[in-house]
Amino acid sequence: MPLITFPNSQLLWVRVAALLFTCVAFSVVAHGGLLPSEGMADWCIFCWAFSFACTLLVLLVEQFGLQARAPVSWTNFPITIACYGALLCLSASVIFPLFYIKDKSYRSEVRDYRIASTVFSCLAAVAYMGEVSLSKARPGEVAGYMATAPGLLKVCQTFVACVIFILVSNPVLYDSHAGLKWCMAVYCICFILSMAVVVLCVGECTGCLPIPFSKFLSAYGLLAVIMYFTATIIWPVFQFEKQIYRDSQRESRKIAVSVLTALNFLLYLADLAYSARLVFVSA
User: Fold this and answer.
1) Average pLDDT for residues 74-82, to the nearest whole number?
2) Are the beta carbons of 86 and 135 closer than 8 angstroms?
């Protein structure tokens, strides 16, 4: 029977804090929040529940010393989960009050439950950020790829792409022009490739590539920068043409997608700079 082991105490406590905060966030709102069954409410619940489940898994594996038996790279998996948890809880902390607290049609008790969930969501985001800060690679330290700046950038890229998918899907914002369909293709292709890198690193399968991993990262990074540069220009050009009728909610989604596209372009640009330096240093 495996012995219970305790990792770095700071990491242990921030993970326990994140576990408790996410648990309270979705438990409180499920108990008395009276959330409607719709996209944004489901997204917030998913953010808290997914983060809670993954953090619980990490804690159980580490406390029972099962890292060697895990089918993933334990130098990459926990920090990947922590980074996704930080982004998920941060997004829920912004989206939830915007959609479900400003509405004053509900009685005060329901709003109190929702406010409490928002507070604990913010605390969970802070706890996950603390875990990422404690786990990320320091200069000169040997660590897994996901603990480095390029690895964390990959997580951010995939997360931003997921938010874009949510915004453009309901209502559909990309079917009115061929240029917008190209932008959607850019989002999908780059998301798939970035997620493939994350999966390869967490699954320790980078050696399966027919070319060196560092060169693959540089080639893919250059392609993604070029593609996102075109999307950053094309999306607002064809979305904000003169229209007789404008739906305010639809317009706000278009603006959000434009901002997120530019943000992902900058993330891919920074990633390319890191990857190119990795190739030159290795050479």
Assistant:
1) 93
2) no
Residue 282 confidence (pLDDT) = 45
CA 115 – CA 87 distance, rounded (Å):
20
Query: Helices 9-32 and 39-63 meet at what angle, rounded to 10?
Result: 150
Considering the domain architecture, whether residues 160 and 65 belong to the same structural domain is answered as no
Range of the domain at 115: 1-143
State the Cα–Cα distance between residues 72 and 106, nearest whole angstrom.
Answer: 46
Q: Is residue 43 a contact partner of residue 166, using CB atoms and an 8 Å limit?
A: yes
Higher pLDDT, 240 or 29: 29
pLDDT digits (tens, 9 = 90+) for 98-109: 887 776 666 777
Q: Report the CATH number that the domain containing residue 55 is assigned in CATH.
A: 1.20.120
Q: Give, in order, the Cα–Cα distances in Å from 20 to each of 53, 126, 139, 148, 239.
A: 11, 13, 32, 27, 42
Kindly state the DSSP code that residue 36 receives in the 8-state scheme: -
| Digit-coded pLDDT (tens) for 134-162 | 988 776 666 788 988 889 999 999 999 99
Picking from 137, 159, 28, 35, the residue whose alpha carbon sits closest to that of residue 89 is 159
Q: Which residues pair with 169 in a beta bridge?
A: 172
Q: Which residues pair with 172 in a beta bridge?
A: 169
What is the pTM assigned to this prediction? 0.88
pLDDT value of residue 105: 62
Residue listed under structure tokens 């648990």: 23
| Domain end point (choices 101, 122, 143) | 143
